[in-house]
Design goal:
Blueprint: H1 4-15, H2 19-26, H3 63-72, H4 74-78, H5 87-94, H6 97-108, H7 113-125, H8 133-145, H9 149-161, H10 169-181, H11 185-197, H12 205-217, H13 221-233, H14 241-253, H15 257-269, H16 277-289, H17 293-305, H18 313-325, H19 331-338, H20 342-356, H21 403-407
Helix pairs in contact: 1-3, 5-6, 6-7, 7-8, 8-9, 9-10, 10-11, 11-12, 12-13, 13-14, 14-15, 15-16, 16-17, 17-18, 18-20
């Protein structure tokens, strides 16, 4: 929200440095019009490996003194013409919520929108004060009236969910639109979901796709994932698997595990992107390590069959036991597990126990795991049977903010 605390810290740290910093300040800036040769490299100095002279080293930094100066002298550090320090947000960042509330309340009474938003956040989450969603909505409203995009989004969520205010989808959509116009990526994504489902707005898949595209371009991983799903299914856009693969890849690189699974599937099958089982296996492993049961199941199949990776029965069994504990049951892997040697099975169970923190569950008589109960937990589906390739977007995904639900206006 506010970066004044970080700026002040940097300035104070610079002020605490010794003569070396002074020498740098005295050096004139380089000529901006000068262009260095593209391949020019400086000649090695005979003293390059020597330690720096003591006179060039910065003086020791006293972190306690810096903390005191941050708390008591930020105005001086920033200068008379610098932005006013946000002490309330600084206290919030440090976890001093009661102090943050008191400081923000004083500034909010003077009409500061950011402070009103911070009060709403503290009250909505019950940080330092008793949770009170009605009062939070009031402070968010004051900040939203002043155009604060964080307050606009937060108030929109309250109206969408009916927390602290009567549910009002039309009002929520309007607030998301105003926040999105100010550059709030998550608000744009939520607005896209609402329009896709026809909540508070007339259903319009093309307009929803446009909002999701704008949110994706602002860097929101969930919007990238949802937009990829629209391109994969041809909802609101012309179906284009190459574009779907590109957006899945963008979301996957941002750490979205559902996108990592989808992108791996497309790589494995060569849909919209060049076929590469080895890279697909790496993405399955990435998502599996993050706890995605669908990825854990698919990685187990690859390790068992030696597709994209070197076959490793113990690792395959370990990942399948972990996936099965989460509800991802697969007939092929159950049969394969029965044929595994006793020693390999014991090693796999020990590794799965370390991963889970408890022994892996066993299937109940009905076929589903005894714990937690129910197949395909968290969007996991069984892996393909022998001879089949990994399924596409209709397969294992996390639907909360993903492909199929995005096409139906799902929300996270």
């Amino acid at each position: 929200m506010r970066k004044a605390v970080h700026l002040a810290s940097a300035l104070l740290l610079a002020a605490s440095c010794g003569s070396g910093a002074a020498q740098e300040a005295a050096t004139p800036p380089p000529d901006p019009t000068a262009v260095a040769p593209a391949l020019a490299e400086p000649a090695p100095s005979p003293d390059a490996d020597a330690p720096p002279a003591a006179s060039t080293l910065p003086s020791p930094v006293d972190s306690d003194r810096i903390d005191q100066r941050i708390d008591s002298g930020m105005e001086t550090a920033l200068g008379e013409d610098g932005p006013a320090p946000d002490f309330a947000y600084g206290a919030f960042q440090r976890g001093y919520f009661l102090s943050a509330f008191a400081l923000a309340l004083e500034k909010a009474k003077q009409g500061d929108p950011a402070s009103a938003t911070l009060l709403g956040e503290l009250l909505a989450r019950g940080l330092g004060v008793k949770q009170n969603l009605e009062e939070a909505a009031g402070w968010y409203q004051l900040a939203a009236d002043a155009g604060d995009k964080e307050a606009l989004y937060a108030l929109g969520r309250l109206y969408l969910d009916g927390h602290g205010v009567p549910p009002d989808h039309a009002r929520a959509a309007d607030l998301f639109a105003r926040a999105g116009a100010a550059g709030h990526a998550v608000a744009l994504r939520e607005l896209g979901y609402m329009i896709l489902q026809g909540q508070g707005q007339e259903r319009n898949a093309m307009l929803a796709a446009a909002h999701l595209r704008n949110a994706a371009r602002l860097g929101d991983p969930d919007a990238k994932y949802a937009l990829a799903g629209l391109y994969s299914e041809g909802v609101g856009v012309v179906r284009n698997e190459a574009t779907a693969a590109r957006w899945f890849a963008e979301a996957a690189r941002a750490g979205h595990t559902g996108a990592q699974v989808e992108y791996a599937i497309m790589l494995f099958n060569g849909r919209g992107v060049g076929r590469d089982e080895a890279v697909a296996a790496r993405w399955f492993r990435e998502a599996a390590s993050a706890g995605n049961p669908a990825a854990q199941l698919r990685l187990a199949r690859l390790l068992a069959d030696g597709r994209g990776v070197t076959a490793d029965p113990t690792e395959a069994a370990r990942w399948y036991l972990v996936a099965r504990d989460r509800g991802a049951l697969d007939d092929h892997m159950e049969s394969w597990l029965l044929q595994l040697g006793r020693d390999e099975r014991a090693k796999a169970e020990a590794a799965a126990t370390r991963w889970l923190g408890h022994p892996p569950s066993r299937p109940a008589p009905g076929g589903d795991p005894a714990e937690p109960g129910g197949a395909a937990a968290d969007g996991a589906q069984a892996a393909p049977s022998d001879g089949e390739e990994a399924p596409g977007s209709e397969g294992a995904v996390e639907p909360a903010d993903g492909v199929s639900d995005a096409a139906n206006g799902g929300q996270d």
